[in-house]
Design goal:
heterodimer, A: alpha/beta, six-stranded mixed sheet, two-stranded antiparallel sheet, 10 strands, elongated, B: alpha/beta, five-stranded mixed sheet, 9 helices
Chain lengths: 226, 228
């Protein structure tokens, strides 16, 4: 009987070409993309045809979510620390070096100054947990920088208007200089009166130039948004 | 898993140089690269967000003074209402008659045939000139700086000659941030040089109320004057 010889094919596939392609792709992604910044709230910015790109450095981003909660993000961590020390100083709060150190790890934050110390002492994952827990209740006052004008009476009984949000912005501007860019990144469903309050507060401090962060409007986004 | 295949060919007594084919298995390398690519695809964005420059008028600046400078014939006021509605009127209501006339305030929207059509019509001259400039820029005849300077000049000249509209955007409390950005976007699309976000006047509130019947457009003080 004639034996059927099954030809033995080597299953070895040359992966060199494949490797070339993947390395190329990897290089492309590494060079062109930027990391997504972690934000405590998901903000869908409105669309615009503006072609100006968001500047990379030296900006203070003011995040406003749908319910009007305000968060801050600063790319310059040293400036953020200095600002935090100043603002906390206004309220008689001081930070330990460890607490200041944890500013390095947070991309953006939004807690009233009274709760900031506790927040900084939490571990990274606990901070996230705290945020998501607190954000479930939209009326929760433990998150978001308060921007309502509250009347405070100092030791001599002088009544003055106090606004934590304004303090943050003015101290950041003082320390960061005039070239610190104010960027407003708000959700598209945010009510206008919320934005108006934010803008008016800044106008009162003679800050009249802002950047509004938007997404690029393309044919497909126009179709889906209308 | 580098694989070194050795093949012995021939067998004579002569000592021959051994031929070695050196093959390195790249499969793990590809695996790792794929993983990295996946990581980069999920954790990064290719699209950088765009920004819009906006300059608000200083709060202590007397607004009355500014308002008078705007030529009424070229003034367009855009009111942003509830549910993404846009209302607009040209010029300024002259008398009570016009305030009560529901047709004075026009309804529009942010679609192609909405407010854009009106603004384009009013700004046709400037738009055409800037379109020509844009073409020059894409052909490489103009630099970015020269382009923006020339655009500015055209817009300023047209505004002086009363050939370009002067747009006041007045968002109401019932509108959203999206409406405001959409309105600003229309200014960019139509190449309108002079626009500003302005405060809603009592008269505007009344106009909106008569047009829509929605009492929420009025402030609490104005609501008192409305007979129930």
């Amino acid at each position: 009987m004639a034996k059927v010889h099954v030809k033995k094919h080597s299953t070895f596939i040359d992966m060199t070409a494949m490797s070339d392609v993947t390395v190329l792709l990897l290089t492309f992604f590494m060079l062109t993309s930027t990391f997504v910044e972690k934000e405590p709230v998901t903000v869908t910015t409105p669309y615009s045809v503006s072609e100006i790109k968001v500047p990379d450095v030296h900006k203070l981003t003011i995040l406003v979510d749908t319910h009007g909660k305000i968060f801050f993000a600063m790319d310059d961590k040293e400036l953020l620390k200095k600002t935090a020390v100043e603002v906390a100083g206004d309220y008689g709060i001081s930070f330990t070096p460890q607490e200041l150190e944890s500013f390095n790890k947070i991309a953006s934050f939004g807690v009233p100054i009274q709760g900031l110390k506790n927040f900084l002492n939490l571990k990274g994952s606990d901070q996230d947990k705290f945020m998501t827990e607190a954000l479930k209740d939209t009326a929760n006052m433990r998150v978001g920088i308060p921007n309502s004008d509250t009347e405070v009476r100092d030791v001599r009984g002088v009544v003055s208007s106090d606004n934590e949000f304004k303090r943050w912005v003015s101290h950041a501007k003082e320390l960061g200089g005039d070239n610190l860019i104010l960027a407003i990144k708000a959700d598209q469903t945010t009510k206008y009166d919320v934005i108006k309050k934010v803008i008016d507060d800044m106008r009162k401090m003679r800050e009249n130039r802002y950047l509004l962060v938007t997404n690029l409007r393309t044919a497909s986004t126009t179709a889906s948004s209308e | 898993m580098a694989e070194v295949q050795q093949k012995e060919q021939g067998g004579g007594g002569k000592a021959r140089q051994k031929k070695q084919t050196l093959r390195v298995d790249f499969t793990p390398m590809v695996d790792m690269n794929m993983l990295l690519i996946t990581f980069f695809m999920f954790c990064t964005t290719l699209l950088k967000p765009q920004v819009m420059n906006i300059t608000m008028p200083a709060i202590d600046q007397t607004n009355e003074e500014n308002k008078n400078k705007i030529a009424e014939s070229m003034a367009v006021t855009i009111l942003l209402g509830a549910n993404d509605r846009v209302y607009y009127y040209e010029g300024k209501p002259q008398n009570d008659e016009q305030y009560k006339d529901p047709n004075f305030l026009q309804v529009s929207d942010f679609t192609e045939n909405g407010i854009r059509k009106i603004l384009m019509r009013k700004n046709a001259g400037v738009f055409k000139q800037i379109q020509e400039l844009k073409l020059k820029k894409t052909n490489g005849e103009l630099t970015e700086e020269a382009y923006s300077q020339l655009t500015k000049d055209i817009q300023e000249k047209a505004n002086k000659d009363l050939k370009a509209p002067n747009v006041q955007i007045k968002p109401t409390d019932l509108s959203t941030y999206k409406n405001m950005v959409d309105a600003l976007d229309e200014m960019l699309v139509c190449n309108i040089g002079f626009y500003q976000i302005a405060e809603l006047a009592d008269g505007d509130r009344h106009l909106l109320y008569t047009k829509t019947g929605n009492i929420d457009y009025l402030t609490d003080e104005l609501k008192k004057d409305i007979p129930q």
